[in-house]
Design brief:
With 248 residues, the chain is mainly α. The protein is 60% helix and 5% strand. The protein contains ten helices and three strands. The chain has a three-stranded antiparallel β-sheet with strand order 1-3-2.
Length: 248
């Protein structure tokens, strides 16, 4: 009588450790290193019995767990510069927390991808993949891709996103003046009030942009011979008056 044993395959050693922690409801900040080391090694033994090649990263983490276990059995704990006892599990916990954080982000991205694919499909995906495979050795590239490379790419993308988001923006303000409108305004005022000093228009709207538009409008009216200038005494003292056209 024969039977088949099926074991779940994990993406990496940290994925396996998180599975043990969540399965047994362990405190990630106070990991029972002896128990989790035994579970980890037992999993690797089952893989070897099933003739499944064990990745080097699994072997590295297994040796790390055994080293931490040995340190915790030593009667003399390690002390830092401030005299505090160093927990041998501290580095492992830090890596696990960071892996868990990025794993949750990857899951969110996967969910977002699924939702976007439901909303709008791309073009001929098979044709695009075939076109890429003709120019790029996809199988060779995929063999060198691991979770950490993907996380680094994600980090770089997020950094570029933050850079683009925080770039300074320039707002173009549309001034409430035009030369044609100011020409009509000046002619109308001269028709009502007669001869006026140029300072009258400055005092009416003293802001810089209004003065510039009024000055340009006056120059065009002079060029069109619609107004005349009389120079008075003093600095920049001149008067404007409308030229009356003679009907033929």
């Amino acid at each position: 009588m024969s039977f088949e044993i099926k074991l779940p395959l994990f993406e990496g050693p940290f994925d396996l450790l998180l599975f043990f922690i969540e399965r047994d409801e362990l405190d990630i900040y106070d990991i029972p290193i002896s128990k989790i080391t035994n579970d980890f090694l037992d999993y690797l033994k089952h893989l070897e019995q099933m003739n499944i090649e064990v990745a080097s990263e699994f072997i590295l983490v297994a040796s790390t767990l055994m080293r931490i276990k040995a340190k915790m059995l030593l009667p003399r704990p390690q002390i830092d510069e401030e005299g505090n006892e160093i927990d041998p599990r501290e580095e492992l916990v830090r890596h696990l927390l960071e892996y868990k954080k990025y794993k949750s982000v990857l899951q969110e991205l996967s969910d977002m991808e699924g939702k976007m694919q439901e909303k709008e499909k791309r073009g001929n995906v098979k044709k695009e993949v075939r076109s890429l495979s003709e120019t790029i050795n996809v199988e060779s590239e995929l063999q060198n891709v691991d979770l950490y490379k993907l996380l680094r790419v994600f980090r770089d993308v997020m950094a570029r996103y933050e850079l683009e988001k925080n770039k300074p923006s320039h707002k173009v303000v549309q001034y409430p003046y035009t030369i044609e409108a100011q020409k009509d305004h000046i002619i109308g005022k001269l028709e009502r009030d007669g001869k006026l000093a140029f300072t009258t228009f400055i005092e009416e709207k003293p802001e810089k942009i209004a003065v510039i538009f009024n000055f340009l409008a006056i120059l065009e009216l002079l060029q069109s011979s619609l107004i005349a200038i009389t120079v008075g005494e003093g600095f920049n003292n001149f008067w404007l008056e409308k030229i009356e056209t003679v009907a033929e």
